[in-house]
Write a structure and sequence with these properties.
seven-stranded mixed β-sheet, alpha/beta, 42% helix, 11 strands, binds pyridoxal-5'-phosphate, four-stranded antiparallel β-sheet
Length: 461
């Protein structure tokens, strides 16, 4: 048994390291098609087993041509972080230790690492020290968790006991969102029983920011409990809502303010960019990710709530067979929608320990510098338009003011393999989206990628 573990983990480490070493040079896009991959994997459920090392070798041989070099320095698609070595190592240890981090009794070290990592996140983001938090799978589940707390809180203030009565017959609850909130806000609301007809949209401006000037009028006419969702970092443009102004207006109407800051909230960790999230500490809940800008491996999202009682009331669970903590320590499942869960605190603690406050600020600032360098390099060509104000790490690019050509350039760059980025339709026009959040991206990676983009663009008229 011991030898099996040694051989399997040794093989996995060797192959993992070889793959990581190949990242700077391998094509960023996968090289195998879905059909090729289906035939490379064993398709029938095997009747007989295989030794672990053989399984791992087979798996790597079948899977590797179908992997995307997402953890590498020239992946600029969606908003995807890489894996910092300390975080990745701690993640491997989390698997080896295999703690069930739902209860303190399931692994006290996991509980302590999570507790500290959570407190460090509050400190880095300038959020209230007394706020509660949860480590979940991603920002969407962070919305779900925080908005569940919000739903509980505003209904309770309206005299409704949600835990007993459920949503049927509850006072109608309205959620106000910006015209360009991320789709996961709507999805989290749907999971919480809040449908489209309860969601009101405030129009967005040309950068995707909520038109805050329209908020007072809209809130004035609303009756009953209200939640306002603001955004720190638009998924296309990186733009920030005016969170201070939103908090002023919403709190005057006793509304709860939730902030989607999946990546943009990390601006708060940099003295250079913190002004973008001015007033953020006055919101009632926040959702962000560690698997984006903190470069923790998937999956790690973070929900933070300024009203711990409502947070706990929305999430906590009790069963007689569970050994709940009785010493005042934090059982993670009381703050979380999950029951059994991975010890996400270890990799989060590890990356913050490795970087410290300075390192987090440095990665944010470096990525923003890279984004600006992309914009400046690409904009030199007269047929290239930078669509957004590059305020953070996101760059939107159009070619020849032409949707078809822009989409063809995105497809051509993906195929070329030097770098990978995705396309979007922004305010009705096709655009290339470049998102820089990887800790290992260098200026040289940006230059190589910009050169590849311009090279591909020159071949498409
Ligand atoms: C602004 C914003 N909110 C929410 C999400 C969803 O995050 P996750 O994929 O971690 O659930 C994203 C993902 O890119 C995002 O950019």
């Amino acid at each position: 048994m011991q030898d099996d573990h040694e051989q399997a983990l040794g093989t996995a480490a060797d192959m993992g390291i070889a793959w990581l070493r190949s990242l700077p040079k391998r094509p960023v896009a996968p090289t195998a098609t879905m059909d090729q991959l289906r035939s490379a994997f064993v398709s029938e459920l095997p009747e007989h087993g295989l030794p672990a090392t053989d399984v791992l070798r087979d798996l790597a041989a079948a899977a590797e041509p179908g992997t995307v070099a997402m953890a590498g320095p020239r992946y600029f698609g969606f908003v995807i972080g890489g894996s910092h070595p300390a975080a990745l190592g701690a993640d491997w240890l989390s698997s080896a230790w295999d703690q069930n981090a739902g209860l303190v009794v399931g692994g006290p070290a996991a509980a302590v690492a999570e507790e500290l990592a959570g407190q460090w996140v509050l400190d880095l983001l300038g959020l209230p020290a007394a706020a509660s938090f949860a480590l979940v799978t991603g920002c969407q589940m962070a919305h779900f968790t925080a908005l569940a707390a919000a739903r509980h809180h505003v209904l309770s203030a309206a005299g409704w006991d949600l835990a007993t009565e459920g949503l049927f017959g509850a006072p109608p609850l309205t959620v106000v969102v910006g015209g360009e909130r991320h789709v996961t806000v709507d999805r989290a609301l749907r999971f919480l029983g809040i449908g489209r007809s309860s969601i009101l949209h405030v129009p967005a401006d040309d950068q995707g920011r909520m038109r805050t000037d329209q908020l007072p009028l809209l809130l004035r006419d609303l009756e009953g409990p209200v939640i306002v969702c603001a955004q720190a970092g638009n998924v296309n443009t990186g733009a920030f809502d005016d969170i201070a102004a939103i908090c002023d207006v919403a709190h005057d109407s006793h509304a709860w303010v939730h902030v989607d800051g999946a990546f943009g909230m990390w601006a708060a960790a940099s003295p250079k960019y913190a002004h973008l999230v001015n007033g953020i500490e006055r919101a009632d809940s926040w959702a962000t990710d560690a698997h984006k800008w903190l470069n923790v491996p998937f999956d790690c999202g973070i929900a933070v709530v300024a009203h711990p009682r409502s947070h706990r009331a929305a999430m906590s669970v009790h069963a007689d067979y569970l050994e709940h903590d009785t010493h005042g320590d934090r059982d993670q499942m009381d703050w979380n929608p999950e029951f059994s869960r991975r010890a996400r605190g270890f990799p989060l603690y590890a990356v913050l320990r490795a970087w410290g406050r300075e390192g987090v600020a440095a990665v944010v600032e470096r990525c923003c510098d890279h984004a600006r360098r992309f914009a400046e390099t690409l904009a030199v060509r007269p047929d290239v338009e930078i669509v957004n104000d590059v305020v953070l790490n996101q760059v939107l690019v159009r070619f020849g003011n032409d949707d078809e050509r822009t989409r063809a350039v995105v497809a051509g760059v993906q195929k070329d393999g030097t770098c990978w980025l995705s396309g979007t339709t922004y305010q009705g026009r096709a655009a290339m989206r470049i998102s820089v959040v990887n800790w290992s991206t260098t200026t040289d990676d940006v230059d190589q990628s910009a050169e590849a983009i311009l090279r591909v663009a020159a071949t498409i008229s």
